[in-house]
């Protein structure tokens, strides 16, 4: 049912969704598609593509440099839009690759704009979600520019945990995470060897363990203090518009 989807959980943190708004959201879920891990569904420079709502699995947005180096801009989890900014601007400024096999809902821009026209509060909620994503990208810039490697890793894992908790997939105890050390390296600007070293440092300090696809917080509060993690930039609860 649409009421239990990650997208509804996420938008419901901002707006108490009405039956009409839930019905409009359900109407966007007409075209279901699946993509396999490692095969881009959106290419940098691509035009005339659809946007997607991630229903299950993980994906990443990345920029590819001319020398072949890759910078992962962000990871997408269930409930996130894929390519929303690009579809509104008519050209994609980044690529999107599934990290795992994923299921998505394909949303054409005309359907999206029609949904916004029918339910302006829903448009406001989606704008909140997009603004929240932008705030996280700003925080990632601070990660790379001003936090040391261990703080950067801690902050990144805490942010993922908060995002997953919002859609019912994580808690302050931990969360399932399919990311490899190579993916983490491309996201936070470290080498894979350095990622391994930093994860060991955090594990030996008793704050967090990342093993066998699961992030376990050993001491959440100490880790948050160590990383100077203040989740207010994600505005997890929002103003809950009436």
UniProtKB/TrEMBL annotation:
Ranges annotated as spanning the membrane: none
Record CDD domains: CAP_ED
A Gene Ontology term for the protein's cellular component: cytosol
Cyclic nucleotide-binding domain residues: 13-90
Taxonomy, superkingdom: Bacteria
The keyword Coiled coil appears for this protein: no
InterPro entries per record: cNMP-bd_dom (IPR000595), cNMP-bd_dom_sf (IPR018490), Env_Response_Regulators (IPR050397), HTH_CRP (IPR012318), RmlC-like_jellyroll (IPR014710), WH-like_DNA-bd_sf (IPR036388), WH_DNA-bd_sf (IPR036390)
Every HTH crp-type domain range: 147-221
Gene3D superfamilies, A to Z: Jelly Rolls, Winged helix-like DNA-binding domain superfamily/Winged helix DNA-binding domain
GO terms assigned for molecular function: DNA binding; DNA-binding transcription factor activity; kinase activity
Keywords, alphabetical: DNA-binding, Kinase, Transcription, Transcription regulation, Transferase
Organism: Roseovarius tolerans
Protein's name in the database: cAMP-binding domain of CRP or a regulatory subunit of cAMP-dependent protein kinases
């Amino acid at each position: 049912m649409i009421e239990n989807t990650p997208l509804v959980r996420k938008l419901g943190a901002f707006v108490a969704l009405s039956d009409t708004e839930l019905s409009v959201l359900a109407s966007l879920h007409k075209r279901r598609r699946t993509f396999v891990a490692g095969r881009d569904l959106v290419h940098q420079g691509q035009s005339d593509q659809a946007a997607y709502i991630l229903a299950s699995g993980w994906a990443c947005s990345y920029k590819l440099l001319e020398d072949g180096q890759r910078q992962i801009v962000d990871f997408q989890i269930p409930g996130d839009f894929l390519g929303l900014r690009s579809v509104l601007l008519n050209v994609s400024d980044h690529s999107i690759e599934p990290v795992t096999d994923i299921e998505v809902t394909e949303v054409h821009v005309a359907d999206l704009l029609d949904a916004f026209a029918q339910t302006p509060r829903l448009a406001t909620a989606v704008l909140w979600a997009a603004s929240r994503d932008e705030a996280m990208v700003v925080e990632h810039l601070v990660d790379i520019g001003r936090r040391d490697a261990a703080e950067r890793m801690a902050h990144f894992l805490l942010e993922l945990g908060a995002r997953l908790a919002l859609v019912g997939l994580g808690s302050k105890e931990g969360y399932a995470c399919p990311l490899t050390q190579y993916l983490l390296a491309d996201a936070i600007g470290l080498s894979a060897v350095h990622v391994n070293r930093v994860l060991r440092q955090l594990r030996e300090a008793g704050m967090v363990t990342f093993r066998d696809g699961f992030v376990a917080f050993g001491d959440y509060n100490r880790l948050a203090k160590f990383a100077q993690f203040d989740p207010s930039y994600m505005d997890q609860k929002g103003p809950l518009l009436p």
